[in-house]
Amino acid sequence: MVDKENxxxxxxxxxxxxxxxxxxxRPGLSxxxxxxxxxxxxxxxxxxxxxxxxxxxxxxASTIASILSxxxxxxxxxxxxxxxxxxxxxxxEGKIVSPQRWMETWQKVKLVLRENFIAETPPTAFELMTxxxxxxxxxxxxxxxxxxxxxxxxxxxxxxxxxxxxxxxTSISLDHTNFxxxxxxxxAKEKFSVIRPGKxxxxxxxxxxxxxxxxxxxxxxxxxxxxxxRECLVKPAHFSLDGVIYDFWTSKGYFFDSLETKLTAAxxxxxxxxxxxxxLLLKDVFPGISDKTIRSGLLSVSWPGRFEIIRLKNxxxxxxxxxxxxxxxxxxxxSLKQVLCPHENITFVTAMMKxxxxxxxxxxxxxxxxxxxxxxxxxxxxxxxxxxxxADIARNIFTKAFIGDEPELNTALCEAVNGHSxxxxxxxxxxxxGAIKKILRSDL
Length: 444
Prior knowledge:
Keywords: ATP-binding, Ligase, Magnesium, Metal-binding, Nucleotide-binding
Family: Belongs to the folylpolyglutamate synthase family.
Structural class: alpha/beta
Number of helices: 16
Low-confidence stretches: none
Oligomer: single chain
Enzyme class: ligase
InterPro entries: Folylpolyglutamate_synth, Folylpolyglutamate_synth_CS, Mur-like_cat_sf, Mur_ligase_C, Mur_ligase_C_dom_sf, Mur_ligase_cen
Shape: globular
Largest sheet: 8 strands, mixed
CATH architecture of the largest domain: 3-Layer(aba) Sandwich
Distance between the termini: 15 Å
CATH class of the largest domain: Alpha Beta
Number of domains: 2
């Protein structure tokens, strides 16, 4: 928990980083490699577990970190994007690193930029944040860092990690096609390119063609490859707004009955079970991992903005989820069906980015009992589609629901909360979730 003063300090730091960075997304490793080299290559000073994929990366990474921390390891977690402030991106032993420490380390990186990138394109904001995080991790001498890739894989700044002991690939679907390729196989090749020679790699599986591509990629790298869907069996036992419970088997004879996590969504079963499989494979590297620490890690993990439940004083329930592409929205819709009462009407608040497949993503909600959809937009974000354009698309898809068009986010939220529905689902973008949480924080 970071107080308002520290959150404001992180906001000022982020602005300074943005002012020093190249704008936008610029795939490539040369800028980052040069920057890290001038800093003494801090990314080589700690063991890392590298998480890539399209959906489920953050939840999986957070669960792995929670298990490792419960196992007595000094564990770091690096994720993106953030919801409220950039300090959320880096946690050590479950705690956010102070803005003062971030600022001190940023000054070292900034000096390197000033002296060595005068005539060259500087790194992007994500690259600079990652460089600062790696430098902090090297100075903190963590036992292991769980690092989530940003957008891609092969050309992602995190792919410069020096001692990756395990690569984890979550589900893969069409996203960021202008950078990663316009077919699933092209995107998968970008993700599978993070597999390290002679090291272990795990792919969640589920698509035969991509599984074959993964196996071939591991063979080329002489890596030990594991496919979760082939080696593990999961049997869901209980769904509710308070969490999920499931049984878990592996082909090597491990069995857990009634594994429980407070992460609430059907898709969190797959994400957290994948993390359990990761932990089992790492027992030879980290002997402190046990059945007890796996259960403890699962029970204590939290991951805001993904089927996050917020109960309001008036008895209504907000369900916040960062689903922003067709696959993510499909599993979000499935989770809503499983945890809510049949025929329970739902009001949606949604905003989406212009570069997403908005129509196909919204169509995944068609089978839900939707009373109203309030279309809005994320304040001060050019990437956000206008509420008017979003509402036009929604009206063509949802012919029986009321479609609202409200560009002001505060007003859109109030309209939804003051309506008839007991449940308000907010989804479409993690940027939307972050903006909503800021409103809720100021109102609470």
